[in-house]
């Protein structure tokens, strides 16, 4: 069993309205040091396989086909065995 | 001219589309469940607004893999007319039938309003009955209508006349170039955030959406030698 933890973020060139709104709220709470906030999502996927290379290949394909939109988003992931 | 309106789990403007086609054009129109694989007998497909698959992951991302979308892809390749409204537009973007992607509105609010639009290109199958530069009024209702494409794509959309409608006055969602609706290169696939099907009678506040349907029928009639 492998667990993939996938992180999907808007590309830095794409405006993140949620991040901007949260930054404003952090400022109003007094965290004046906050220069930038970006919000993304974490997706966890469990794969029933003992083959790390196969799991990696599948996760890559999932990200490209569905989990991220390459027009506006970047992704990266970590793979853990037996999680 | 036969119309199909695919229904995804979560579509909620499907019946409005059916009624608009019947009221304005008096042409046959069927609701088609998203698992349907054959749309060969239809001349035009309208992907309705709503929240397909709850808009989980990203708007339109899951609907794009519904079985019906393969037929929509085929229909688009054959030159049939495909109209994606609101969530339908988002599905067309995710399916790669139109370039770009949809983001959350720049002000983060769900915006429900009557919006003035400019008809940028009136030589498309969907805009023949409008005049170029004409201002029309259509309802909008969306939280993720902030159209995005990179500068090269935007330039290409402008040069090739692929921008069909642009917001006039205040841009309600922050879309690049104030884009409200675009077509593919061939011009037979239109995606737009405003709802023409909700503006086909004066009592609805505007009847300006009716001309989009009459344009489609006119185009189809002219390309088939009869309406």
Could you give the topology of this structure?
The complex is a heterodimer of chains A (83) and B (227).
Chain A: E1 2-10, H1 17-28, E2 41-47, H2 52-67, E3 73-81
Antiparallel strand pairs in A: 1-2, 1-3
Chain B: E1 3-7, H1 14-25, E2 29-33, E3 44-47, H2 68-77, E4 81-85, H3 87-94, E5 101-103, E6 111-119, E7 135-142, E8 146-148, H4 151-159, E9 163-167, E10 179-183, E11 189-192, H5 210-224
Parallel strand pairs in B: 1-2, 1-3, 3-4, 4-11
Antiparallel strand pairs in B: 5-8, 6-7, 6-9, 9-10, 10-11
Helix pairs in contact in B: 1-5
Provide a brief overview of the structure.
The complex is a heterodimer of chains A (about 80) and B (about 230). With about 80 residues, chain A is of the alpha+beta class. In chain A, about 35% of the residues lie in helices and about 30% in strands.
Write up what this structure looks like.
The complex is a heterodimer of chains A (83) and B (227). By secondary structure, chain A is of the alpha+beta class. Chain A contains two helices and three strands, in the order E-H-E-H-E. Chain A has helices spanning 17-28, 52-67; strands at residues 2-10, 41-47, 73-81. The mean pLDDT of chain A is 95. Chain B is 24% helix and 25% strand. In chain B, the strands form two sheets. Chain B has a nine-stranded mixed β-sheet, with helices on both faces. In chain B, strand 3 (44-47), helix 2 and strand 4 form a beta-alpha-beta unit. The longest helix of chain B has 15 residues, at 210-224. Chain B is globular, with a radius of gyration of 16 Å. The relative contact order of chain B is 0.17. The model of chain B has no long low-confidence stretch (mean pLDDT 96). The chains are: A alpha+beta (83), B alpha/beta (227). Chain A binds chain B through residues 10, 14-15, 17-18, 21, 66-67, 69, 71-72, and chain B through 57-58, 61-62, 65, 94, 100-101, 103-108, 146, 148-150, 174.
